[in-house]
Design brief:
alpha+beta; Arc Repressor Mutant, subunit A; disordered N terminus; Muramoyl-pentapeptide Carboxypeptidase, domain 2; 3-stranded antiparallel β-sheet; 4-stranded antiparallel β-sheet
């Protein structure tokens, strides 16, 4: 099936690396931003930023309107601000991984044994997929023995490529701003979030980052799992029932 006109327009708008960085900056700010802020973030002139912003608006990726900065009473013309459109766009931004989730569940059904439930089979397969991803990255990078914080750094690099949008909230804490399995995770959190946690735990093990752990810690508009340096007394990961974005 070919891409429709909207999809092609979206891909064309984001095909420019500078434009893509500008769009990601606006989306991650989670608030209306001005041309000046976008220009500063990209290291370009306000005029060039305005040109690219207009292209993103025309492609249906951004909404523009005039608004005074919060808490500031501005005399005269209000500045134009930009924010992402509320509706879903044809090309998934942020990245989703529905195919991987479907593969995990399919393999779980095909390989389920009499000694395990369907859920346990899904967690087993997800852990194995994560372990394979982490192992392949470890073989590529060859980082040697990993300390806890370096293990989180390597995990962040790996998961960035997989669409999780990692954020180092603290030296011992890695949060994930995007859930690659949303909105399916919102519909069936007990299953999908557990599969996600198992996948990330397997990835950590494959990376050789055994001093870190994948913990269910649901937050609004984010992945339900975060990666932490494992405390000496910390055992198995926590359980939870909700997932964010």
């Amino acid at each position: 099936m070919g891409l429709d006109h909207t999809s092609l327009t979206t891909l064309a708008a984001l095909g420019d690396p500078l434009r893509r960085r500008m769009f990601e900056f606006i989306r991650q700010e989670r608030r209306p931003v001005t041309r000046e802020e976008v220009a500063d973030s990209a290291g370009i002139s306000r005029k060039l930023a305005a040109f690219h912003l207009d292209k993103l608006v025309a492609a249906g990726l951004l909404h523009a309107h005039c608004e005074s900065p919060a808490g500031i009473r501005k005399v005269g013309r209000r500045p134009k601000v930009y924010e992402p459109v509320a509706e879903a766009i044809a090309v998934s931004i942020p990245e989703r991984r529905y195919g991987m989730l479907a593969d995990v569940l399919t393999e779980a059904v095909l390989t389920e044994t009499e000694a395990e439930s369907a859920r346990d089979a899904a967690l087993r397969v997800a852990y194995g997929r994560g372990e394979a991803l982490g192992g392949a990255e470890r073989a590529r990078v060859r980082p040697g023995r990993l300390g806890a914080e370096r293990g989180l750094s390597l995990a962040a690099d790996t998961l960035e490529e997989f669409g999780y949008e990692p954020e180092r909230a603290a030296p011992a804490l890695l949060r994930l701003r995007n859930c690659p399995f949303h909105p399916l995770a919102a519909k069936a959190p007990q299953l999908v979030c557990a599969v996600n946690q198992a996948f990330l735990a397997g990835c950590l093990h494959g990376l050789g980052s055994d001093k870190t752990t994948a913990v269910l810690a649901p937050r609004p508009d984010a992945c339900c799992v975060e990666l932490r340096v494992q405390e000496p007394s910390e055992g198995s990961a926590e359980t939870g029932t909700t997932c964010g974005r």
